[in-house]
């Protein structure tokens, strides 16, 4: 029997961003208390937490304090200190463990795990240095994408190479970490599956979302994804294979490419709720955040069901003003803002979810609102 965490007990969250905030809001509905470890005082999650521990993620005393005040500990992003999390598993109840973070915070170990789970990835090579990249790039063909093994997000730490002449563009990436280079996948759609599991092995996927990126940043998620039913089923099967292989407890988001023939290639993993699952707050009978809390608290999971087709649109810094100016025109739009002070360009400030009977008409409405035009 898995340990059950009850309302009134405290959930500790490492990381104070919007994912932590939305986890916290879901947990507080059920009467849990929230402690958050985050280096900044006024963080999105800190604003709604009961206990704030303001310190770096790898601060030993702070981790001990978090262990002391928390009945269960989770995290909202994968770039936390693995050794710190490992130590925490010995001091506190961390049902997700530390292994999943170790694997997913490095693209090399992540790709290996996906392959070992029996799932397809783009052809790739690992290069520890620029010289190794140059020496082994012929094993994959152009165009290809070089990605830092660690720390990349929203397309940062990546370089597209169209031919050997572009190689020097990737040299700078090695200042950060070792890299992988992978073949460019001629996808027709990008989709993601959020799979969640509790300690008793109950497992469910959220409905498959179709993701549209602009400048490598997620712009819209459309649900259900506009793909064949068979393709959606195999997307879920792939995500479940990876979750099983990793002995998942908690949440795993699996980003995938869909090829013209319906084949699926796995792109990357995130061991936490994901931007592409935010639609589930309104559009499903159980959101990715509520399900995550249930999973780590040893509660039974609920089978996700989509109430209506939906579109989630991200609100970046440059969209906040135009959105505020026109929000009164759109009663169907559910607005989420994360409480970040500074609306910097391309910073994720919030999102809008729209449930609709007509996806194409709503996509058109979003476009013609002018809020997201460059
Ligand atoms: N091998 C690839 N082929 C084609 N497009 C890619 C490939 N890898 C990444 N991309 C594009 O770049 C985006 C960001 O890459 P990703 O690996 O997901 O990194 P991150 O989301 O961490 O920035 C993807 O969503 C996709 O649009
Ligand atoms: Mg990605």
From TrEMBL:
Protein EC: 6.3.4.18
GO cellular component: cytosol
MF term (GO), any: phosphoribosylaminoimidazole carboxylase activity
Pfam families linked: ATP-grasp, PurK_C, RS_preATP-grasp-like
Superkingdom classification of source: Bacteria
Binding site for ATP: 107, 147, 152-158, 182-185, 190, 213, 267-268
Entry's Gene Ontology BP terms: 'de novo' IMP biosynthetic process
Keyword Nucleotide-binding: yes
Enzyme class: ligase
Record domain ATP-grasp: where: 111-297
Keywords: ATP-binding, Ligase, Nucleotide-binding, Purine biosynthesis
Keyword Ligase tagged: yes
NCBIfam families: PRK06019.1-1 (NF004675), PRK06019.1-2 (NF004676), PRK06019.1-5 (NF004679), purK (TIGR01161)
HAMAP family with a match to the protein in the record: PurK
Family: Belongs to the PurK/PurT family.
UniProt-recorded name of the protein: N5-carboxyaminoimidazole ribonucleotide synthase
Species the sequence originates in: Lysinibacillus mangiferihumi
């Amino acid at each position: 029997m898995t340990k059950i965490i009850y309302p009134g007990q405290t959930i500790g969250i490492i990381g104070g961003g919007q994912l932590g905030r939305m986890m916290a809001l879901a947990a507080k509905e059920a009467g849990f208390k929230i402690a958050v470890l985050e280096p900044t005082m006024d963080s999105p999650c800190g604003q709604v937490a009961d206990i704030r521990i303001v310190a770096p993620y790898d601060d030993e005393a702070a981790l001990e304090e978090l262990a002391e005040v928390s009945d269960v500990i989770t995290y909202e992003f994968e770039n936390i200190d693995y050794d710190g999390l490992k130590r925490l598993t010995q001091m506190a109840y961390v049902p997700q463990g530390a292994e999943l973070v170790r694997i997913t915070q490095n693209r090399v170990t992540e790709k290996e795990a996906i392959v070992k789970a029996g799932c397809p990835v783009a052809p790739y090579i690992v290069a520890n240095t620029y010289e190794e990249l140059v020496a082994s790039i012929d094993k994959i063909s152009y165009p290809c994408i070089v990605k830092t093994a660690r720390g990349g997000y929203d397309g940062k730490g990546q370089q597209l190479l169209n031919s050997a002449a572009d190689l020097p563009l990737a040299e700078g990436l090695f200042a950060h970490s070792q890299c992988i280079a992978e073949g460019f996948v001629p996808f027709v759609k990008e989709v993601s599956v959020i799979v969640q599991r509790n300690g008793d092995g109950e497992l469910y996927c959220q409905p498959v979302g179709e993701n549209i990126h602009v400048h490598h940043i997620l712009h819209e998620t459309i649900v259900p994804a506009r793909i064949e039913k068979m393709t959606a089923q195999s997307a879920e099967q792939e995500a479940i294979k990876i979750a099983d292989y990793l002995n998942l407890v908690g949440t795993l988001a699996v980003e995938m490419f869909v090829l013209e023939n319906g084949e699926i290639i796995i792109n990357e993993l995130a061991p936490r709720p994901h931007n592409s699952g935010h639609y589930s707050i309104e559009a499903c009978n159980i959101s990715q955040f509520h399900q995550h809390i249930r999973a780590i608290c040893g509660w039974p999971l609920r089978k996700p069901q989509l109430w209506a087709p939906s579109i989630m649109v991200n609100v970046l810094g440059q969209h906040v003003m135009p959105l505020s100016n026109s929000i009164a025109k759109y009663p169907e739009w559910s607005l989420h803002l994360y409480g970040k002070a500074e609306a910097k360009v391309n910073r994720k400030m919030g999102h809008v979810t729209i449930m609709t009977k007509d996806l194409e008409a709503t996509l058109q409405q979003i476009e013609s609102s002018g809020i997201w035009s460059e």
